[in-house]
Amino acid sequence: MYTSRAGGGMAPELISPEYLHSVNPSNFPAHHLRLKEGIPVVLLRNLDPDAGLCNGTRLIVSHARSRVIQAIILTGDRAGTTVFIPRVRLETNANSSRQLGFTMRRLQFPLRVALAMTINNAQGQSLDRVGVDLSLHPVFTHGQLYVALSRAMSIDRIKVLLPSRDPADDDDDLPAVDRTAAAGFVTPNPVFRSVLRAMNGE
């Protein structure tokens, strides 16, 4: 486990270390960062774009050391490349600083454990296997379901988790297709017809 050093842009006696450690602004690594060999992570800062170390790059930890993390890039042109991630000094952006009421600084590895990601963050990536969890919330905008289901190379490498259904709702008199829909094995797929019309030149 790695812990950060944090500070705020106010008098130290006004902000307790415990509070600083509990604050996690967006795109900030946690104060307590639990890493081990083989765990997937995502990079939270642009460290070296030429070497493939950009914000959002997915990596897998190969060695976890006290001052540097050795990792392997998982996606993009540099996939398979071994890289080294140092601890860096991070500072909240203007928006986060305004919300907090102070500018926060944290010395930490710019990584977040990435066992899962949002559909939007997965856009543009090709993955060996994909699991899509729609059990609590269905997709909510045009094209989102397509993005989720098109990340895998083939359909047999996709699993979708949908809300559980009540077997009492089954109707054996329905045709097979309607029975599948009635059983709850469907999910909404919002389509903005104006987008389709624009694509067809209407």
TrEMBL record:
Keyword Zinc: no
Cellular component terms per the entry's GO annotation: replication fork
Every DNA replication helicase domain range: 112-159
Secretion signal, residue range per the UniProt entry: none
GO molecular function, a single term: ATP binding
One example of a Gene Ontology biological process annotation: DNA replication
CDD domains: SF1_C_RecD (cd18809)
Keywords: ATP-binding, Helicase, Hydrolase, Nucleotide-binding
Residues spanning the membrane: none
UniProt domain DNA helicase Pif1-like 2B: residue ranges: 18-61
PANTHER family membership: ATP-DEPENDENT DNA HELICASE (PTHR23274:SF48), DNA HELICASE-RELATED (PTHR23274)
Full protein name: BZ3500_MvSof-1268-A1-R1_Chr3-3g06592 protein
Organism, as annotated: Microbotryum saponariae
